[in-house]
Specification:
Blueprint (H helix, E strand, L loop, with lengths): L2 H10 L11 H12 L5 H14 L3 H14 L12 E5 L12 H10 L4 E5 L11 H7 L9 H11 L1 E5 H4 L1 H4 L3 H6 L4 H6 L9 E6 L3 H13 L5 E4 L14 E6 L5 E6 L16 H12 L5 H16 L6 H13 L2 H13 L2
Parallel strand pairs: 1-2, 1-4, 2-3, 4-5
Antiparallel strand pairs: 5-6, 6-7
Helix pairs in contact: 1-3, 2-4, 4-12, 5-14, 5-16, 14-15
């Protein structure tokens, strides 16, 4: 048993009237003690549920991110003039709406914007479709690469993926607690903001509940992460919805922050999110999207891709972004990028 961890647990778990938030330094210590298994399973489980009930504050999230930076994988910078884009989505996947984040990542890479995603395998509490299953469907064994190979792939193709079980087993060892406590712990929140990259990066953080965005903004400030985008996306992902106005927060390196509200009807798009259906049908549907064929999911990919192409400076206006996204799909450029990644993995 760790007496040091027990003292931190007592601080956050003493009840609504006497519990106190941890300092950033204390949260970093707690994170390291959990990741290196110095804390016992009983202590870790108690901390995670107590911390969820108390609700984390930005300093605590920043401290946990410090622990991830200390003990987790960090990819060295690649040689590229554009900041790397990191797309942060919930690790427990999607179960209600069809994701297009992988298409967005390939589209950005095809437009010469280096893009990195990260995630795990099937994960509680939702056990939705994870990114790794989509990569495997496309014949991309990204979960088998070591970090050197991930960095090489990112440098060569401008596309990469950090796999939690393979590249951060200490964090993956904490996944089982999500099933045992039946709730997402605060670790699920920092995954939305985690940047496993050493160079200049722009982090996109999906969220569901408005308080999460406030936490993200204040945590990014403590981390000196000045370039970021927050998206009230489908199921907390980075995917902009059709069924409601997209609520987006955009921060610039100079500290300026603005709110952007985008409604698909204003740009000629529909108003219904594409349901997941069966995962088999969805994975087959992706083939049509890669070719730019008429399909509701293709429209979703254009809606998302167009916004991100504009956000990251490929296009001067959002309208130009939608046209560029459509052209990248219909011309086969996105499919060619997938083929390039596959060739790099299977020389």
């Amino acid at each position: 048993m760790s007496t040091e961890f027990r003292d931190l647990l007592k601080k956050v778990g003493s009840g609504s009237h006497t519990s106190k938030p941890l300092t950033r330094e204390e949260a970093a210590i707690a994170g390291r003690l959990m990741l290196n298994q110095t804390a016992t399973p009983a202590q870790i489980g108690a901390f995670l549920i107590a911390h969820r009930i108390k609700r984390p504050v930005p300093a605590e999230l920043a401290g946990l991110l410090d622990a991830y930076a200390d003990l987790g994988p960090i990819l060295p910078p690649i040689q590229h003039p554009h900041p790397l884009v990191v797309l942060g989505c919930p690790y427990d996947g999607r179960s209600r709406t069809a994701p297009v984040t992988p298409i967005t990542a390939l589209m950005l890479a095809a437009a010469n914007v280096p893009t990195l995603l990260h995630g795990g395998d099937r994960m509680p509490t939702k056990y939705g479709l994870p990114f790794v299953d989509i990569w495997q469907h496309w014949g991309l064994p990204l979960d088998q690469l070591n970090l050197v190979q991930v960095h090489t792939l990112l440098q060569r193709t401008h596309f990469g993926f950090v796999h939690l079980p393979r590249h951060f087993p200490a964090a993956h060892a904490l996944v089982a607690y999500r099933e045992e406590i039946g709730k997402r712990p605060p670790l699920a929140t920092i995954e939305l903001m985690w940047c496993p990259y050493e160079g200049n990066a722009h982090v996109v953080s999906g969220f569901v509940h408005p308080p999460t965005e406030v936490l993200a903004r204040e945590t990014f400030a403590l981390q000196n992460q000045t370039s970021f985008t927050t998206v009230k996306g489908m199921e907390g992902s980075c995917d902009l919805p059709f069924s409601r106005t997209a609520i987006i927060g955009m921060a610039q390196p100079d500290g300026h922050f603005e709110r952007l509200l985008l409604h698909p009807n204003d740009y000629g798009f529909g108003n219904k999110d594409v349901p997941m259906g069966t995962e088999t049908d969805y994975l087959e549907q992706l083939s049509a999207v890669l070719l730019g064929k008429p399909d509701p999911l293709t429209e979703t990919a254009i809606w998302n891709g167009g916004f991100y192409l504009w956000r990251f400076g490929v296009c001067n206006t959002i309208e130009e972004g939608f046209g560029k996204a459509k052209d990248l799909l219909s011309s086969g450029a996105v499919e060619a990028k997938l083929a390039e990644v596959k060739a790099a993995l299977h020389p």
